[in-house]
Each structure stands twice: as C-alpha cells, then as structure tokens.
Amino acid sequence: MAASIVRASLNKFSWFVVLAMALHHHICSVAIAQQVPCFFIFGDSLMDNGNNHQLKTVARADYPPYGIDFPGGPSGRFCNGRTPADVLAELLGFDHYMPPFPVASGLEVLKGVNYASAAAGIREDSGEELGGRIPFGGQVENYKKTVSQIEKLLGDGVTAAKHLSKCIHSVLMGSNDYINNYFLPEFFSTAQQFTPLQYADDLIRRYNKQLKVMYSYGARKFALHGLGQIGCCPFKLDGPNGTACVENINDAVQIFNRKLKLLVDQLNQDTPDAKFIYLDTFLVFLMFVSGFTVTNEACCGVGKNNALLTCLPFQTPCDNRNQYLFWDSFHPTDAANEYVSRRSYRAESPSDAHPYDISRLAQV
C-alpha cells in the first residue's frame, strides 16, 4: 500500500526537488507580511540552531561542512542549510530566524527565541550517552526566563501575557526518546520496563506536563509536530542493500503520533482559550520521498549508507545535495526540510494537519 502511494505521488512531487534547487537558502527577498508577533521553538537537533554550543557534548554541528548552504556557514544547525524552524519563520513572514536562547537578548526576544537542543528528549535521560543537552523540561525553564524578560520589556505581566497569547509555540520532541533511549538497550533499560504502548503513554504524560507549564506562562497557540519515519533514516536502514526501513521503530513512533494527536483534541476541549494543532510528518514522508534521487544514503557521512559515522569535520559532502533526502545519518537536507515545512504551514492533504495547519493557527 505504502509503495503504491509513493509511486502514485512521483509525478506530483518530483517537481519540488527542481523547485528547491532554484530557491535561495536565505530569507526570501520578497516581502511577506509578518503573521504573528513572535515564534518560539522547542525541539531537538531537527530544530537546534546553536543551543548546544556551550555544552560538553558530541551532539554539535558547529563545524563545516554543516551549514555549507547556509549564510555564514556552520551555525549549529544539523543540516546543509535551513531547519524546519527556519523555513517556518520565513513562511510566517519574519525577516530573520529566531535566535538561540544563549544569545537572545534585548528587544529581539519579543519576536521569539529558539530553545531546541540536539540530543534532547521529552524524558530527562534521553540522549545522555551523547553528553550535555537541554531536555524539554529545561527548554521550558528557559522559556520562563524569556517570559520574565518580556514582562520587564513590556512593563507588566498582563501586557506580556497578551503578547504571548498571539505567538506560535512550535514543539518537535520525541525522536531521541526512541533512537537515543528506547531502542538503545546498551545504554537504557526502558525497553525492558515498558511496552511500546506504555512507553508512548509515559512520553505523552511528560509532554502534556510541559505544555501545561507553557500555558501557565502565557502560551496559547501550539503547533505540535508528530515524529517522522525514524526507522527509515540512513543510520537505521537495514537489509542487504541498506534500503529496508526498521518497522518496529516506525510502529512504535506511530503509537506516539496517534496519542499526540489525541492529546491535541483533549487539550482543545479542556482549554478553550488556547489552540493546539497536530502536524503529521510521518505520512508526508511517504508522499514526497520519491521526489528525491537518493533516499537511502546520507549526503555526508562515513560507512554503510554514509551513515555509520555522522558528517565529520571538513569532510567533502555530496555535490547534488538537493537530490538527497538526508544530509547526514539522521537529519534531512534543506530541500527536504523545505517541503515538509511548507505542508505543515499550508496543508495539501487532510492528513497533513489536524484540526488545521499553521497558516490558520496564525490567524485564529
């Protein structure tokens, strides 16, 4: 079934790669009206833009060839170019990308901050084998500090809360709770403690707790990203030709995604003054993967599928980066991030976003 969907989608989506090759990897020069006053980002390496610089960790991307297609070069983004957070900032009409928390200061915090940290998870222990990182709870603590700054800048808590209620809060968390926890038994025992269903319940409970803290500090518009097909990243691909996705990983991720979507419905019912949306990247992956020439190898890396070791300092990456789905062992290319983010912003299928997409969230 999945294969037939992909084949049927080839003609529709292959055009996107051609379009992506023509796009400039910087803020679009065509003026777009800013749709919300601010944009706050929570997540892991898919969204990180420099929050791990000061940490003792191997989860860093502050060296070339990371950022080879990004203005200014390496910045901490785990990509050749832009992250989904960057693309969404463009689509929302911002004339800049949201600064990472350690360097965000002054009036710029009024327009948003990026708190995402590579190797971070919903659970505190996820990713700890890689060193320092800022889990979801730590990112929310940093958000509290930003809210305090905004209260001082705007004069009082009431004005700050009114400002924050109009901002979009984007959350993409959970990948490391699987690849750097549940499916890493040499470091973690969670797979022995929980069934996949129980583990998803535990993650959703912790996730919900942090959302409620954010709500208590003024957040009212939430864009919650589901997890992608982690079992299909180059590092995880199995089989003799390195092409078969690891289905038990994808099955576990889908349990989490279904529960996150249900949480969105529950939160919309329980907190009518807030708006929550769910963004499906799992199915979108099936729809656009065939638009790329190379889907089972990383553009930059070492070993099987160029993915046993991630992109090394000063390594020469592939030349045809817009034809690759993956930049390194785990992370998509700029072209792939562009496509997924555009469908999150403006849904092309009813399954892309629930109950509506980011463009409408900005308006309500």
Features:
38% helix; Rossmann fold; globular; two-stranded parallel sheet; secreted; disordered N terminus; lipid metabolism; 364 residues; single chain; lipid degradation
Please give a quick description of this structure.
The protein has 364 residues and is an alpha/beta fold. Helices cover 38% and strands 8% of the residues. Helix 8 links the parallel strand 3 (221-225) and strand 4 (275-279).
Helix-strand layout with pairing:
Blueprint: H1 2-22, E1 39-43, H2 84-91, H3 136-154, H4 157-164, E2 168-172, H5 175-182, H6 190-193, H7 196-216, E3 221-225, H8 247-270, E4 275-279, H9 282-288, E5 294-298, E6 324-326, H10 334-345, E7 353-354, H11 358-363
Helix pairs in contact: 1-10, 2-10, 3-4, 3-7, 7-8
Major β-sheet annotation: 5 strands, mixed
Domain tally: 1
CATH homologous superfamily name? SGNH hydrolase
Any idea what the CATH architecture is? 3-Layer(aba) Sandwich
Sequence stretches where pLDDT stays below 50 over 5 or more residues: 1-29
- Whole-number mean pLDDT: 92
Strand proportion = 5-15%
| CATH fold-level label | Rossmann fold
By oligomeric state, this entry counts as single chain
Tell me the name of the CATH class. Alpha Beta
Number of strands: 7
Shape: globular
Strand/helix succession = HEHHHEHHHEHEHEEHEH
Give the helix/strand class. Answer: alpha/beta
